[in-house]
């Protein structure tokens, strides 16, 4: 997501399930304007929501615009905790296709769901609705299950969700990213209320959690806080 601030241009790569909506709200209320209007952020570009595009998907959108981006930044999260935050949605897809959790404890079944299973997703706007077909949860329009490393590169400034989206994060955006007028919208920082679905690790079968760690091995190595 591109944001304009005076003569500067920033790219906030919004990884789903990492508090991104709160960050976008804070940027806007700080006077940092989105290049694409907020009402278009859920628009679909090549099958994916505009606000959740990976680095490669975003490149196809932005390259023709030739925008002078000074800095890209992202918030990353423990892959297991990120999966748990989307667990209710995951169960919803299983229910639609009569797939049991016991089946998903098998890693090959889990991987098949992520990469191969054909899904259909209903998307709605005022007065209109349509279905998207996609193969594997990784290709869901929301991009909720895309690996996080597909959003970042060596030039991306990275903040860890586990370090809180409070005062230290506010200072980091000002000093490291360069958005000098950035201010959080809520005193004390981000609360998960209203964003996460309140699932806990204890609700997820241990074998499924192990599959998550295995499937997102690269993310675990890059982004899990020691």
Report what the structure shows:
- By secondary structure, the protein is α/β, with parallel strands linked by helices.
- It has one domain: Rossmann fold.
- It has 9 helices and 9 strands.
- The strands form 3 sheets. A 5-stranded mixed beta sheet has the order 3-1-2-6-9, with helices on one face. A two-stranded antiparallel ribbon has the order 4-5. It has a two-stranded antiparallel ribbon with strand order 7-8.
- Strand 1 and strand 2 form a beta hairpin.
- The longest helix has 11 residues.
- Structural class computed from helices and strand pairing: alpha/beta
Cross-sheet strand order for the largest sheet: 3-1-2-6-9
Count helical runs.
Answer: 9
Distance between the termini: 29 Å
Described by the principal axes of the CA atoms, the overall outline is globular
- Are there runs of 5+ residues with pLDDT below 50, and where? none
Task: Profile the largest sheet.
Answer: 5 strands, mixed
What is the N-to-C order of secondary-structure elements (H for helix, E for strand)? EEHEEEHEHHHHEEEHHH
Number of DSSP E strands = 9
Rg, alpha carbons: 18 Å
Helix % is 25-40%
Q: Which CATH C-level class is it?
A: Alpha Beta
User: What is the average of the pLDDT values?
Assistant: 91
* Overall domain count: 1
Percent range for β-strand residues: 15-25%
Q: What is the CATH topology descriptor? A: Rossmann fold
């Amino acid at each position: 997501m591109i944001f304009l601030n005076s003569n500067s241009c920033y790219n906030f790569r919004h990884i789903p399930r990492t508090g991104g909506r709160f960050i976008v709200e804070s940027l806007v209320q700080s006077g940092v304007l989105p290049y694409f209007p907020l009402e278009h952020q859920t628009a679909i570009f090549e099958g994916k929501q505009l606000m959740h595009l990976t680095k490669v998907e975003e490149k196809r959108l932005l390259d023709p615009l030739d925008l002078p981006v000074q800095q890209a930044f992202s918030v990353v999260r423990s892959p297991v905790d990120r999966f748990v935050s989307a667990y209710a949605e995951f169960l919803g897809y299983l229910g639609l296709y009569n797939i049991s959790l016991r089946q998903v404890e098998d890693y090959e079944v889990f991987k098949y769901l992520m990469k191969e299973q054909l899904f259909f997703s209903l998307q709605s706007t005022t007065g209109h609705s349509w279905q998207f077909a996609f193969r594997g949860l990784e290709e869901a329009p929301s991009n909720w299950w895309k690996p996080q490393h597909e959003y970042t590169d060596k030039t991306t400034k990275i903040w860890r969700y586990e370090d809180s989206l409070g005062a230290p994060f506010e200072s980091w955006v000002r000093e490291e990213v360069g958005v000098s007028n950035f201010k959080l919208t809520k005193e004390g920082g981000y609360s998960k209320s209203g964003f996460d679905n309140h699932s806990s690790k204890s609700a997820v079968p241990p074998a499924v959690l192990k599959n998550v760690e295995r499937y997102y091995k690269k993310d675990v190595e890059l982004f899990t806080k020691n």
